[in-house]
Amino acid sequence: MNPCPAPIGPLSDLLSSRREDIARRWEERAGASRGEGLLRLPTQTTGSLEWVDSVVDLLRRFGVSAEHEVQLPTDGQGAERYRAGANIAAVVREYGLLRDVLVEVLEESGWPPDFKGLRALNRAIDASIADAVTRHAAAHEQTLRLTEAKLHDILDHAPPAIYAKDATGRYLFVNRAFERGSGLSSEKVVGHTDDELFTPDVAAEFSSNDRRVLESGQPLESDEHVRFKDGWHIYQSLKFPLLGVGGQAHAVCGISTDVTEARRIQRERDEARERLRRVITELPVVLWATDPVGNITLFEGAGLRAMGVRTEDVVGRNTSEVYAGRPELLDAARRAQQGETFSLELEVGGAWFMAFISPELGPDGRVMSVSGVSLDITERRRAEEVLRQSETRYRLATLATRDVIYDWNLSTGHIQWSELANRQFRLPPEMPGLDIEGWTRSIHPEDRERVGRDMQRIIDMGLDHWRDEYRFRRGDGSWAIIEDRGQVVRDAAGRALRMVGAMHDVTERRVADEEARRRAEFEQLLIGIVGHDLRNPLSAITMASTTLLRRESLDERQRKVIDRILSSAERATRMLRDVLDFTQARLGGGIPMQPRPQDLHELTRQVLDEVRLAHPERVLELESRGDGAGAWDPDRLAQVITNLVNNALAYSPSHCPVLVRTHGTRDALMLSVHNMGTPIPPELLPRLFEPMKRAERLESQDGRGGLGLGLFIVKHIVDAHGGRLRVRSSQQGGTLFMVRLPRAPTPQTPMNPGP
Question: Are 267 and 291 in contact (CB under 8 A)?
């Protein structure tokens, strides 16, 4: 390069002389396509001249060499116009128009073509353009820096955490909210990935959402969970892609707001709302509301099931339509719309409700809406009806029974009596009911202490039932025998609260029982005395008859008379023995037993041999099986066998045999006596073993009868041995008596060892 270039005097001078014409032509050329360049505003001529002069000045600064470097002035028009808001593309275009005007003026002026001068002119124009572009770029960069600083300041002061990550997941930027939430400074975050900063599960969740944004190119809103020192936090994150060249997502930007506390409050609110909903839907209530003119706006609650209606069938309709045909409901709606607060019981769909109605008044006192709650009281109404019926039944029962019912409050001593009390106790109508003190004074002095002691013992011991019998003085001074039964009512802790009971006047019954007892004792004593005193003369008759029968001098007629006397004496002896056994059983001592080892088979055979002697004309059959050993009273068992066999002979046809069976099992023996003939009447079977029941059965075949004590005594002997006696009788099967005897007396059936 030439350090001392020669000035292009003629070219710059020529252009300077034509500067006004150049400025005018430039403005005319630029006016048709005026944009945001140097000439975007209405321009003074001096302004255009200054821009032309600046180019000419640059032309002078250049030397002859096109490579000569020239220092551009710092206060060029490009910088000034840029600060005024010129568009750099328009500036370049307008400098191109200026170049065209300059060449055109040179051509008109007859300037000989000079390539060096043209190069200098082009460099001057290009230098002006370059200066404008450079200053524009510097100003743009400064604006960007200011904008970025303002953006960073805005992001740092934003409440949510804001961050950006590249496609590999490395953080490019985080704001202060991110630093506060994570506890990590920007220097420790930028350039690192989620895997390096968070736990694996948290990092996996972040990375998964980032990939979805990068792959789809669409924003993504989701909840992300981060564990800090104080526990898990929930962030509501909005992530969106940052697009690069070609519209491809090259980074992810995220805005995350900590909604942990908000979610907790929302969760608690939802739970409270759900609890309230469950309460409303479970309780037997109906919540409802109407507007001022009666249009139903709310109808909810579990009570709808009892009403038999659905919410959608009612909401939106007017009360006049819903309650049509129910004048009491229409009247209630009218009262509420007039501002009245009240409650009432009503029946809807077969269910009963207690409705509480409250209108809401506005500032002017007019009804704005009506709301209410209806409580299902169907069960209460039913309980009240049951209680009324129960009270009615109780009153009728107390009037129908002869018992005096009482309810005694143990804490106050007050006694509530049934209506029968005054009549039963012969109290005057004007006399008030007895309290506990009056009742105590009415008890006979000899019974009072015992009754009070026993009753207090029942209460103190935690028992529930008390019963006693005592003498009670009536209102007229007479004494009654009272049977008192009380039930103690206690609370959950077991404390006695009340005693509910019944008092029954048993005076007449006790007198009758006592009279019957004395009469029975007298009868039993009389029978015992008669039976004992008849034994001696009967024994004398029997002995005398037996002695006379041994004489050989008796003729046939005398022998028959003596046999008849002996038979009658033996029969009277048997009857006397039955009477004595009956007396012994009725007196309560039981028939005496003396058990000892016996063989039932052999004992039965001996008894049948004796019966055959008395009834030689009858057929008696015996079947025996098994072991017959056991411990019994042989005389009493012989009495059982004799009575049963004689009973079978007496009530069976003479041509029919009587079958007797004995059968031994492992621990018992069975004795049965069977005969054919007229069966025992069914109505007699339940009372067959009671005393004096013989006459109710058909007469025996031989026409002889006894006292009707035989089967009664048989039953007592079998019971005394711990056995069991049963009977079956029918027209086809005949009559069968069955006796089961244990081989040895059991502890539950002790024998009486006395004579």
Answer: no
